[in-house]
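At this stage, I put together a protein sequence along with its fold in token form, as given directly below:
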Amino acid sequence: MLEPTGLIGKLNLRMAVIAKSNRVLLELDLLRALLVVSDCASFTTAAMQLHSTQSTVSQKIRRLEDLAGHRLLTRGPGQVQPTEAGHLVLGYARQLLALNEQLVDSLAGVAVTVTLRLGVPDDFATARTTRRLAAFNRRHAQVKLEVTSGLSRDLMQSYDRGELDLVLVKQKRNSRDAVYSRPETLLWIDSARSPAFARDPVPLVTFPQRGLYRDEMITAIEALGRRWRIAFSSSSLGGIQDAVADGMGISLLPRRALARGHAVLSRRSGLAAIDSYEVAIFHRASADALVQELARELWRGVTTPRPV
């Protein structure tokens, strides 16, 4: 049980907290009226600047004086001057109104820093994709796009960790439910000027072990009874494309990655067609309208045929 003095102490503390929370709040609109009247030294001129009436401005000053508990202006014939208390209030009023302007400007800046985090594989990080992103950004100038490119498996892991809002990836068909998906056409490619498929063992140009297509390539070569070796490995699509074109080995890539210096290996090579992959887009069910619109924009780029 509390001692009487302890109870009184508790009550005094509580009353002090209540008293502090009930302190007078001086409205910025009233402070602005005081500032304009003081600067103009006239209620009539101040009313014109505030697009108000003289009586309304006078009411605001009286209201402010009631809240402050002090007379803030002296009113004489053709002359209005701040009192000592008025000078004190004016000093703080200028600071508070300036802070209000800074806050408004900062909130306006927030509107142009909406960030959407997008992940795409290297073979989609092309001019065709950036044109789509640029069109989206022109419609939504307040959006900042952060684009990460890399291996599909790495992008999905980042998405699952909540580090990306939207991902366009390649995956085994139907391995995960996606917002959009379609089968991916893959081609066996070799060098046009320095073919590598006839060599023994067959040199392979692949993505790293966590990359797509690597296991399918090895399985297909072994199904022919051929030996193989990894001649070149890179996480960069450009590196893979150049290595094949320069004759370092064969590779398995999407049709869109076919480049100058490549030759497509036909079915006569005996290599099995690989049709177990798809392109897919993922975003969360709770994604906002901007994420959903960007997903649609990207998907139109995926499904629109490339110009010949």
